[in-house]
Amino acid sequence: MTNFKNRRSPRHTEFDYSQPGAYFITICTKDRISLFGEIRDDTMLLNAAGRMVEHWLLKVPSKFQGFQDDAHIIMPNHLHYLLFNKPKDNYP
Description:
Blueprint: E1 21-28, E2 37-40, E3 43-46, H1 48-63, E4 67-74, E5 78-85
Antiparallel strand pairs: 1-5, 2-3, 4-5
């Protein structure tokens, strides 16, 4: 089993991530195993797990007030997601 005690966090310790702004999120699967589908003829074909991930990515704005998604891409072993945290005065 891997020891995560010495793992450095990619987060900036002085940054408040609850503040409005654009956030580029990358999430990788454990051991970079292709869990979300495959690329065939330069096209990403999502499997059931990939479709489930996409389903929930698209629901983030309706589940969390003030968040707006801009773009995402799901690859076989990772995903990229561009998310905006809007200022509170721009909430509906």
